[in-house]
Amino acid sequence: MSRKKNIDLEQTRLNILKVGLSLLEQKGFNATGIQEITTIARIPKGSFYNYFASKEEFCVEIIQFYTKTRIEEWENLLEAEDKGDPYLALHAAFIELAIGYECADPKTGCLLGNLAGEISEVSEDCRMALQDAIGKFKKILELRLLWGQQHSKVRIDLSAPRLADLVWDVWQGSLLRMKIEKSAEPVRNTLETLFEKMLLP
Amino acid sequence: MSRKKNIDLEQTRLNILKVGLSLLEQKGFNATGIQEITTIARIPKGSFYNYFASKEEFCVEIIQFYTKTRIEEWENLLEAEDKGDPYLALHAAFIELAIGYECADPKTGCLLGNLAGEISEVSEDCRMALQDAIGKFKKILELRLLWGQQHSKVRIDLSAPRLADLVWDVWQGSLLRMKIEKSAEPVRNTLETLFEKMLLP
């Protein structure tokens, strides 16, 4: 196959992933149809299966694509906010995220949390992809919380992995409430509760 | 209409709700089909619409039915555990819930959290039913946390409603991780983090 054809296939594949991600963020896995994806991506419906073996495999790739993209954004944000204090940068990055949610319409929240509720029981492949993705995000949290503990900025009566679990869980819970209340107030309040009260030494 | 016929209709309706709830807990809203519900409930497919105007209205009623049932169970559990300390009863009731999740297979988690991720953006009626349901659960938490604050068992640097938000959010987040990790360890750890560390004065 020629190099140009390979690049074209890769671009189409990426386009389908982007369209699929946008639909999955808004409507979830089951309400998103292949027909809708292919119509928006402007490809014949049948050709979807040239790129992905099944809708389930497609969803696994969407989870990986979302995770890679968001972790890059997250790392860039953390780097931009880092003024020699990786823990302060974590707080600042969360504030940036919350500001983003403030403006977002619709407030889709986190794809990982939304899919966890919807498909953990019905697709083992998707469940494992979600587990892997969340592990990556929690590792970022854990390292910065550990730094905070080592520099007397974070309580030390709980391990950094346990604190990372807390931050991840409460963040996901507040994102669900954001969707239900149609307001970013739950995520703003959660940040205040965590960083100004619960995580302090 | 005769009294007997009314009772029959009400029993069929209740049966459809129970079947629907079980399916929605496992598979979510979109993956649950009317055909599947009516087959398990042993009624003709078309007659579903004698009981519910639409699948969306059905989902609203499932949310209300789930909330009423769970709140009754929750209140009974709290009452059984209450030995003159409503806050201690709250902790004990959560431990009971966690033990239940330990044994549950599949680990469906909380219908409200699962649906929040899946349908908040697509059904305004369901979103409002979820908001109403969560408000009821949070009120129970809030009153017992307030009692704990008034009796020096719970920290007072955050209001009881704010602490209720924290407990609700972290619980929902840990239920999502329970589904993803196929283990009740996240909910056990969350209870320990909350009741033995974060909520203390």
From TrEMBL, chains A, B:
Presence of keyword Transcription regulation: yes
Signal peptide, first to last residue: none
Gene3D superfamilies cross-referenced by the UniProt entry: Tetracycline Repressor, domain 2
DNA-binding region(s), residue ranges: 33-52
Source organism of this protein record: Pectinatus brassicae
GO molecular function annotation: DNA binding
Name the UniProt record assigns to this protein: TetR/AcrR family transcriptional repressor of nem operon
Matching Pfam families: TetR_C_13, TetR_N
Alphabetical UniProt keywords: DNA-binding, Transcription, Transcription regulation
InterPro entries: Homeodomain-like_sf (IPR009057), HTH_TetR (IPR001647), Tet_transcr_reg_TetR-rel_C_sf (IPR036271), TetR_C (IPR011075)
Residues in HTH tetR-type domain copies: 10-70
